[in-house]
Amino acid sequence: TRHIFRIASISKLITAAGIMKLAEDGRLHLDDPVFGPTGILNDSIFSSIRDPRAKQITVEHLLRHKAGFTTVHGDPMFCSVDIARKMDVPPPADLNTIIRFVLSRRLRYMPGTSTAYSNVGYGILSKVIEKVSGTTYENYIQENFLRPAGCFDMHLGHNLYEERHENEVRYYETADEELIPACDGSKQLVPKYYGGNHIEALSGAGAWVASPIELLRFLAVIDGDPRIKDILKPETIAQMTAFSFDTLPIGWMHVSYKGDCSRTGTLSGTSALLKKQHNGYSWIFVTNTSSWKGSKFPSYINQMINQALSTVKQWPEKDLFELQIFDQHEYIVER
Question: DSSP 3-state assignment of 156?
């Protein structure tokens, strides 16, 4: 129960919560432009913008995958060697370089007029959090969400097995997985999950590692359930979980008209599904192997968990999180 796993795109829910907290505190607005002279990221490194429409991208466009970025020629977050070569920097391309690269290309559509799932959009939001908060993305999330929620072993992950965190699992792929060239440009053939994908560049789009228990602790402070005090305001949580036929929710992947919310995460060597159900129960399934069901993984796991839940006739009434509470100082000493 204390092992930590890569949670892939479930990281986006964490990033979205960070952005919404900054909005609550009045430090940004969702309709703020992100790029250009009046944008949040008006730094000189992001000033070379090929498509003028990029200056119309707002924070909310990024949150809802409506910023106009394209993956027609591949997801930029997983093309670190090619991007490094095109931007004339040593591989692997870091997040700043990837953002510079997408700004040097034309958008797929006018921001706000369509939807296309975008990892790089949430990478950009990680930089927005850093710029507005004045601290690192990881530190802001830990100080404002994780530590208050009782989560002390959630971190941004690393590329290699040798760089893993103390309690982090080993990852595995299916038997037919092919090796790919390393993201560091060495041309060595490696597994995607250890050196093939540049995990560190994913940042708030997919780099968090967490234990299932601590991830549920995080969810408990943004879920609107009054039994555990939320960090976000009720109106913010309602905004993040509002049902819409034509717009993706904020941070979550799916929100049903009944109020069920789900967020999936998939990387080579990782499959995860987080579910907040309208009946008050929440759960996460996370594994250190790639999915053996492909794109059917979320529906398969959801059905399996629901069948398991239906067999439980009586649940404990005590707060099971209390059994996991320990003093932060004692935890650090133990670590």
Answer: strand
